[in-house]
Every structure is written in C-alpha cells, then in structure tokens.
Automatic annotation (TrEMBL):
Residues 417-427 have a biased composition (Basic and acidic residues). Keywords: ATP-binding, Nucleotide-binding, Phosphoprotein, Transcription, Transcription regulation, Two-component regulatory system. The modification 4-aspartylphosphate is found at D57. Residues 392-427 are annotated as: Disordered. Residues 8-122 form the Response regulatory domain. Pfam families: AAA_lid_14, HTH_8, Response_reg, Sigma54_activat. This is Response regulator of zinc sigma-54-dependent two-component system. GO terms for molecular function: ATP binding; sequence-specific DNA binding. It comes from Hyalangium minutum. GO terms for biological process: phosphorelay signal transduction system; regulation of DNA-templated transcription. InterPro entries: AAA+_ATPase, AAA_lid_NorR, CheY-like_superfamily, Homeodomain-like_sf, HTH_Fis, P-loop_NTPase, Sig_transdc_resp-reg_receiver, Sigma_54_int. The keyword Phosphoprotein applies.
Amino acid sequence: MAEPLKGSVLLVDDDPAVAKVLGALLVQAGLTVHTAKSGAEALSLLGQKPIDVVVSDVRMPGMNGLELLGEVTRLYPDVPIVLMTAHGTVPMAVEAMKAGAADFILKPFDREEILFTIRKALLRAQGDVERSPLKTSAFVGRSAAMAEVEALLTRAATGTATVLVRGESGTGKELAAKVVHDASPRRSGPFVKLHCAALPETLLESELFGYEKGAFTGAATRKPGRVELANGGTLFLDEIGDISLHVQVKLLRLLQEREFERLGGTQTLKVDVRFVAATHRPLEEMVKKGEFREDLFYRLNVVPVWIPPLRARPEDIEPLARHFLEVHAKANGRPPFTLTADALQALQAQPWPGNVRQVQNFMERLVVLSDGPSLTGEDVARELARQPGLMPTGFQAQTAPPSTTAPAAVTPGSEPKTLESQRRDTERQALLDALKRAGDNRTLAARLLGISRRTLYNKLEEQGLL
C-alpha cells in the first residue's frame, strides 16, 4: 500500500462476522471505523459522527443498501457510499451508479481491493467537489441567454455528436448534460457521471476504463469502468480539462473508435456511448501551452455550449431567488416566504461569483436563519455580512453607533483581548448560533456556516464543544 489511509468510515452490515473482520482491516489501515447493523442505525450515526465514507451491504433486512444509498444521497450529498454485494452484476452496478453510488465491490473481496476502493472514495470525499445546483434550477429565469442555451441543448440532444459544456463553476454544467441525456433517444439508458478532477491519473484511468483481475495490487476481480457502465446511454465527463496527457491519448481513441481495453486486459471492447464533457478551464490556451491535446479538443468541441455567468444575466436573479426560497422552505418544513422590494434590491446588487450554486446556498441559509415569513433587506444584509466579499451597495450590517467620546484608558489588569482570542470567541459564538438554528443537526449547521462536516467537527473539537 501507499501511505496509510486517513478518514472515518461507517460500515453497515447486518452480519456481525463481516463487520468484525472488515472493521479490523480498516482500523489496521489507519481508518476510524463506526459500525451499524441496519440502514436506520446508519442514518442516525451519520447525524452524530463525522463520517467521510459509507460502506454498506446491499442485502439487509428492513432498509436495503440501495434504499440507504437514496437516503444518504438525499440527506448527506457530500458523503460517498460504496455498496458491497455477493450477487453483483453489471445491471446492478448500473443501477447503483445511476442512484449515486461512488463505487461497488463484490464479496468475497481481497484486502487490497477493498482498501483500493475506499481510497478512491476518500479522495472524492476529501476533494473539493461542490454539490450541483438543484435540478431544473439553472434554467429558472427569464433571460434570453438561458433560453438560447436550453434550445441549443435540446437540439443537440437529438443527435449523437459530443457536446462540450463551458462555463464558470456553479452555472449548472452538470444540469446541462442531464438536459441533453433526458431529451435524447437514450433517455431510458444510464446517465453515468465521472468527475475527472477528483481523482489522480492512476485512479481516473481505472475508473474510466475498468480493470481485469490482477491488473494491479488490489484488483482482485474484473471490474467494469464508467465507459462500460454507460453503454447505451450517456457518459458525462466533468472537468475534462484536468485530465493528464496520458489519459487524453486513451480518451481520444475512445472518442474516435468507440473502443477500449480494460486495464490489464487484451480484449478490445466496443461501446455505444454518447459523450458530454464540461470544463471551466480555458482549453484553447491549454492547447497552445501543450497542456491539452489539440486533436482531443476538436473531438470534444463538436457542439460547444457556453453557459453565461449569473452576472451576465441579472434578470435571472429574482426568479432564481424565489425558486430556491420555495424549494428550501418546503425542504425545511417552513411556511412560504416572501421577499420585500429592498430584499430583492440587495440580492440583485450582488455579483454572485459562485453563480447559481451560490444563490442556492444563500437562499437556503436565509430560510433556516430567518424568522419569516417576510424576508427584508435587513435579513439579506445580515447574512451577506457573514460572508466575506459579499455586501450589497446601500446595505450595512447592524452595528453599534460610533462613539463620540475619546477611548477609555486601559487600566492595569484590563488589557484588551488579543486578535486571536477575539477570533476564537467570534468563531465559538458562530458555531453555537449555527447549531442552535439547525436544531443541533450538525450537517445542516455545517452547510449554514459554508464549511464541510469534517471542518465543523474539527472546530467543535478545538472549541471544546463536542
């Protein structure tokens, strides 16, 4: 193995023998292990512990592994889940991937295989992979620019040409890929995603093409890759600009010939796959610098689609804000909210560098932290003030009025707090406030603070709040 693994794994299996043996193996590899005998117990632990990866059996009484996968994906979208089964087939793998599984492994499994699989899942969990905007949200709005984008995607969907979606982070590139798939004749086939920036070259290659038994340490069985799983459907390659030149060569052949070999294999496999790629990187400049193959760029750029940033279509801010307000009010069990004119003014004054995703997160924060039912400019300004770099013109967070008297002299024994102690006090209060607002739901508290669950637990530990 390479360096020891670091992270926290929740092992879900109703067989105590499997849990004991596998748990001991993972602890020996350096991981913190929590165990659950059922899906319900697993969901309870996820709300209490800083879990990086869930490893679950498929066949369990009560809530099975696929049902648990659905709940984890819905409630904890930042936590990848790996499924284990003794009855694995390619159709089951396709079903698991479509439902959002990070990976799947077959029982009985080899020590190196399970560690290899969990290493990949940890890389995904600990990487900076942001959640996508809610489905249908990127195309909520009234701008002519987005109407043109949707029309172009719909036209492109009827064919088989590769689509390259360009745009800044948070604009809805994954949603655009799903629009292509859902409007295409392949809509009944699988829609398989691969985030190319989340994995190093060696893992990306095995994830893309699959591997044969014995191809490398940890390859205890043959395993199909994402290309094979997407046969008859669509493969979405997100952040295509981050792949290495070595993988670019293999991907070029796949795009040209629709054929490939698994790692460690000699058999050439043919696939019927529609490709949609996305990136926020300037591929033309990368081609000039020799960082991206020119022939691959032209293979990908058959139907280019640019999604404009939100600052270029400010007329979409209001409908997006209202849409997310309604969605998150329902999701959090709150009554309907309304926006006052000054609240809309404050929202529309923002540049929203994080685009649709940032608006989504901000409106969720407003729903949870505001009393409602009417959200005012003061409510918006209060939450904007808690986010560095976001403050609308004409609005200012409520602060104490400036003093007109000279500052009092510092008397012995009453020295002012250091900057570090003030920072810790402020951070502690923010943590307590978020936990209170979230009803002690730590996952929600982390989202309100704009940090990961792992970071929240680290800060709670630093502050002695665990």
